[in-house]
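Quick note —
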Amino acid sequence: MASCLIRSMRCFPTIGPRPGILMDTPCRNTGTALALHRAVMSCKETRMNTGSRRCAVLPALAMLLTVGTATAAESPWQPHASILAAARATLKQLAGQIPGGRVEIHVGRLDPRVRLRRCRQPLEAEPADATRTRGNTTVVVRCPDESGWRIHVTGRIDVFEKVVVLGRSLARGERLTPDMLELRERNTAVLQYGYFRSPREVTGRVARRALPAGTVLTPGNVAAPVLVRRGERVTLIATRGAVSVRMQGKALRDGSRGDRVQVRNLRSKRVVEGEVVARGVVKMTL
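Predicted structure written out below.
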């Protein structure tokens, strides 16, 4: 059995539950397999000559496995796992700055052909851009030895939060009401155009275009309702200190709450600018 196993170079014999019983397990390397083969053959010869049922394969196995482990530990190359672990630790620290939400961290792979000299000192790592606390990012891992090295490791920080989405489809220009809105968990790292965390932030706004159910609402797909329309008569309130004067005017452009629009005073024909404060009302300070 041992000879066949050695020829295949795929496994080697080890001691089984009782002395003299062999089991097949994967071999660590060719040298270990050959050495164990010699140990098994020597054991067999000893048994034939002495009639003993015991042999020294087990001590030989322990010695060879110890040597094999030590050889692997003394590899001159930095283990990829240690580099990725340093990158992951840095991403976790970066993700700790994110308030709330469920965070998932993903670290990319290294090209198996990459070989870097084993570092005698602990590895150092830092984000390539500390302002990127979510989404795709890069970590720079370096060896601080005198003849050290540095390598860029890609990663991604996903942040799952509850955001406002449409509970049903919405027509263009339709006004949003609380019964249309729902809170659902989404990966905000991929929401490049923004989002809302509370239905109160969007209640009363209108859809800029037709939106299907399940759409994440963003500042780009909803707008504040128009309170002043171009060409319509508006009330123009001019204030100075505690004194205010009301007059009639004509809006020269559309405006929502907080927008600044131009208004023509119907009496003086002067064009002034004010802030939209309510439907059909523009306020200006003298």
